[in-house]
Write a structure and sequence with these properties.
The protein has 16 helices and ten strands. It is α+β, with helices and mostly antiparallel strands and about 400 residues long. The protein folds into two domains: about 45-185, no CATH class; about 195-400, no CATH class. The protein has a four-stranded mixed beta sheet with strand order 7-8-9-10. Helix 2 packs antiparallel against helix 3 (about 30-40) and helix 4 packs across helix 10. Mean pLDDT is about 80; it is low at about 1-5 and about 85-90. InterPro entries: AbiJ-NTD3. Pfam families: AbiJ_NTD3. This is AbiJ-NTD3 domain-containing protein. It comes from Rhodococcoides yunnanense.
Length: about 400
């Protein structure tokens, strides 16, 4: 069996681990080993020093409100072992569970929170396990009141912020806050309305100037996504279900192709490289498209009731994004395709002014916590170009932004 496992590719090994977790009932040791295979390159990175400082910031007493609840939480994430009846009889070493019962519950004060996490292996485990445990240990499942939750978060966040991380309230469940670990470099607010797939300017007005709310009077040919966007971002399947429900004559369970065609049709005919990037993205992931982030074309970023002639071209810089991906934890990822008009003037000559305008756009977007990736039109000439470069880019981009898709 070991020889067989060693012959598997990393992808096949991950598939096998996922199958065992879904179809069998592995022991805690087997479960964690399989999860480690699946989680080794997944999730936010949180270094050992930060983990130890987080542990040192909270008194262990803050978690000891209910022994059964606390032990059940530990069981979900760590290997505690049994009660060691035979180990005790024959003088063997006690299990971690037995040590916790002795040093945490029977003799309070023996162990600090840092000592307990050290014994669990929390400082060396894969990032996703530590992050998931941290998110659950501040949940209502572990802490009985909202005041308890807020206290622990208030102790942990100053440490996390030194590593550009924070426990951020993202939802409410049963009346209690739900916290998720997020980078402080990503937006804290969720997108409210996304206007996209449009070749013409929508008609908007301010419906509540005090609250800063807008009303869409006429979207013309645009799509307006107004459904809630969860912590995992906007996936193609969610977009497909929304579109099916909003579009007369389209079944809610519509296949992905009609939505793909609708989005592709919104890309300007004058930009073949942009169409090619859209095509190649879906070509690479079509067999698992439902779990892939939706690639939204022609997304309105800035809107002004006046025309370019009235306001000036520079004031309307970057009205629309070529493509937008809404990733986990409110991440906004922009893909821009630069044809020759982005760096030449009307006569086709190199234009430092136009190049400067693009760099200004990138700076402004970065300051708004958007991540911008630019492609030169030269990279996207036709459908004969090998896709290896683009497959590598998207896979690395997903990894960097902690985007997981079906294997």
């Amino acid at each position: 069996m070991r020889i067989l496992v060693e012959t598997l590719t990393p992808s096949a090994l991950e598939d096998a681990a996922a199958w065992v977790l879904d179809h069998m009932q592995p022991s805690a040791t087997q479960r964690n080993g399989l999860q480690d295979v699946l989680w080794r390159n997944d999730g936010l990175v949180i270094e050992e020093r930060t983990r130890r400082e987080v542990a040192a910031a909270v008194p262990i007493e803050d978690f000891l409100h209910d022994q059964d609840r606390f032990e059940a939480l530990l069981d979900r994430w760590w290997v505690l072992g049994g009660d060691d009846v035979f180990g005790d009889f024959f003088g063997g070493p006690p299990s971690v569970r037995k040590q916790i019962q002795q040093h945490v519950f029977q003799n309070p004060g023996d162990w600090s929170w840092e000592m307990l996490l050290d014994r669990l292996g929390a400082f060396e485990t894969v990032d996703k396990r530590f992050v998931g445990f941290l998110e659950q240990v501040v949940s209502h499942a572990a802490l009985p009141t909202e005041e308890n939750q807020e206290r622990v978060v208030s102790l942990v966040n100053p440490v996390l912020m030194k590593a550009s991380l924070e426990l951020r309230e993202v939802d409410r469940s049963g009346g209690y806050p739900v916290y998720r670990l997020a980078s402080t470099l990503t937006p804290s607010s969720r997108p409210k309305t996304v206007i996209f797939a449009s070749s013409s300017k929508p008609d908007l007005r301010v419906s509540d100037a005090v609250a800063g709310e807008i009303e869409i009077v006429d979207a013309h040919d645009a799509l307006v996504y107004d459904a809630p966007i969860g912590i995992d971002g906007l996936r193609f399947d969610a977009l497909r279900r929304w579109w099916g429900a909003k579009t007369p004559g389209i079944d809610v369970e519509v296949a992905p192709r009609p939505l793909y065609d609708r989005l592709a049709a919104s890309i300007p005919e004058s930009s073949p490289p942009q169409s090619y990037l859209f095509w190649i993205y879906h070509k690479l992931y079509w067999d698992r498209i439902g779990s892939v982030p939706a690639l939204l074309p022609e997304v309105w970023m800035h809107w002004d009731p006046k025309t370019i002639r009235e306001r000036g071209a520079r004031a309307l810089l970057g009205q629309r994004m070529d493509f937008l991906i809404l990733g986990p934890n409110n991440q906004r990822i922009v893909l821009e395709v630069d044809g020759s008009s982005h760096y030449t003037d009307e006569a086709g000559q190199p234009s430092p002014a136009r190049y400067a305008r693009n760099t200004q756009y990138d700076r402004e977007m970065q300051l708004r916590n958007y991540t911008v990736y630019r492609f030169g039109g030269y990279e996207l000439p036709d459908r004969e170009r090998p896709m290896l470069m683009f497959a590598d880019f998207f896979d690395r981009m997903f990894t960097r932004h902690h985007i997981t898709i079906d294997p």
